[in-house]
Design brief:
The chain is an alpha/beta fold. It has a domain of 260 residues: Alpha-Beta Barrel (TIM Barrel), CATH 3.20.20. It contains 15 helices and 15 strands. It binds magnesium ion (MG).
Amino acid sequence: MKRRDLIKLALASYVPAEAIAWQARRGMPSPKIKDVQVIATAPAGLRLVTVKILTDQDGLYGYGCGTYTQRADLVVAAVERYLKPFLIGKPADRIDDIWQACYNSSYWRNSPVLNNAISGVDQALWDIKGRQAGMPVYQLLGGKNREAVDTYRHASGAEISECLDQAKKLIAEGQRHVRIQVGTPGEAAYGAGRGNVARPSSVLHDGPYYNPDTYVARTLKLFEAARKELGPEIHLLHDSHERIHPTQTLQMGKDIEQYKLFFWEDPLSPEDVAWFRRLRQQTSTPLAMGELFTHPLEWMDLVSERLIDYIRVHLTMIGGLTPARKLTTLCEAFNVRTAFHGPGDICPIGHAANATLDLTVPNFGIQEYSAFNERVQEVYSNCPTLKNGYMYVNEAPGWGIEVNETAAKKYPFGYGETGERKLYNGGWGEVRKRDGTIIKQ
Ligand code: MG
């Protein structure tokens, strides 16, 4: 590469000088893994885990996302204490081979902790491969199938009017797809507040409580109001978050059909996937599933029997970009589209990996988007950007993202966005029914 081009690359991507210098020496022998490090940071309150792999070639390194925010400390240990000693000295350019080796090295496989640890390594190796090639990862996957990634964002409120006001704001900003969720006063709905209403005295425990009946009734009213106020063209999405019983799901599936959702997410839990055969026969509403999947057998029947319309996996939870590519190819054969999980508990590298697949697979559906606050962008430069509802990745080699490790240290695990101490070491609390029965979150 000519010096003039190197300078252009540096200015365009903020890539550090040593990485640029490495570019000038391309053509060197296969790089070996020299070190595996973990960057643990919580710039937005959510615990993010980024794996950094350094090679024996100066300036050649890469970053990958291994964020499992609810058990983040365990992913750190899985990388530092198990994968690192296993990987030192291995060739950094054999991505699938290393994935298979890591996957099998624990004998028991597919735990979310181990999959996230492998994902951090896997995505870092793709970053390295892109930096070696001087190309963004989407080019390594064959190039774009579309110009940018269409996204959806969240609108919610304790009251229907609040949710719809948020939706209108997002639509005014250019969103064509909006997820809508409404709370129930005094109750713990998923994805929306509960308002300033006292809990009924008949609730038999002190924690947050959830009532599936009021959830369904409120949600149907929300959809009716949304269609009246937002019109027929906006794409509406909704997440039931696996909280209602399958028989209630069947009924809800009939009732919501008239509102013509873009998709209905997690109408059933992973433990109840066999119900999809019945649900599919009883509603034409497009179904999105898979956010909680960690094992390939969880999606195999759903995809091959065409029981769902959108695969919702969280890339790091299934082991990174390498297995996700294979999953998208499987889905393509059965016309199941992608809708990768994209909340704030994925580091920007993970969002870039989502967007990279979104750009390159023919069966892209939609991408969930959550904004990066200033602190996140202080730690991770060159994050994917959003314009008129479309997400863009940058053109720098690899993921095109650099991590400011000094800034990362300013935001240790354990504190929320406003500095408040977080409970449960990042894990979630509990939600119960009125009588005290625990429900799935
Ligand atoms: Mg969800």
